[in-house]
UniProtKB/TrEMBL annotation:
<dbReference type="InterPro" id="IPR029063">
    <property type="entry name" value="SAM-dependent_MTases_sf"/>
</dbReference>
<dbReference type="Pfam" id="PF04816">
    <property type="entry name" value="TrmK"/>
</dbReference>
<protein>
    <submittedName>
        <fullName>tRNA (Adenine(22)-N(1))-methyltransferase TrmK</fullName>
    </submittedName>
</protein>
<dbReference type="InterPro" id="IPR006901">
    <property type="entry name" value="TrmK"/>
</dbReference>
Amino acid sequence: MISKRLEIVASFVPQGAVLLDVGSDHAYLPIELVEKGHIERAIAGEVVEGPYQSAVKNVESHGLTEKIQVRLANGLAAFEEADQVSVITIAGMGGRLIATILEDGLDKLATVERLILQPNNREDELRSWLQEHGFQIIAESILEEAGKFYEIIVAEAGEMNLSATDVRFGPFLSKEVSPVFIQKWQKEAAKLEFALSQIPEKNQEERQVLADKIQAIKEVLHESK
Ligand SMILES: C[S@@+](CC[C@H](N)C(=O)[O-])C[C@H]1O[C@@H](n2cnc3c(N)ncnc32)[C@H](O)[C@@H]1O
């Protein structure tokens, strides 16, 4: 059983894909997908020795060493063109780190069909990075697990033209306005309202920045006129 978060990441992996899971602590995602018969083979890449060893042990104990190769490598250095990787998942890291990993291996992405990304924060920076590097977002998902909100961004090669609202809230998520999306942004608005209440009246510029952020949330939640 994998977490709901990884379950949703897995749901965007096409049947028969050759997967590279970057930052594959425990190799949970590749193991789940291979065991279900959803994919034939995968590479689990990990840069830190401890999590790499956990991934190796787990793949061995599931009897999957023929189908899942665990590689100690930094980011996209875990694969070569000959591996014919078609899908890359990068989950459970900061959005900025995910963008750095992609940027460092940008030339290798030309042959990859789909990126499935689950940043723990800075989703806006990751969306901007995708736009600036020849990717379009084709789907998004949002979930809540153990009191935390997670966004999943699925991208493929292509062009997109994101508005400021799309960048911050997600081009799909901001149109769907799901109950979880509403919860996430109502919570964020409450935090910003509190922060605003702590700023003295005389700091007008600082107050305005927060007020604008709150207003943008209200607009996306259709709470303002
Ligand atoms: C919080 S864990 C997430 C594990 C799993 N992907 C998940 O979503 O549950 C992040 C993992 O990414 C690994 N990691 C961080 N930077 C990396 C990089 N540049 N290349 C490969 N792995 C990396 C860390 O060592 C850690 O094991």
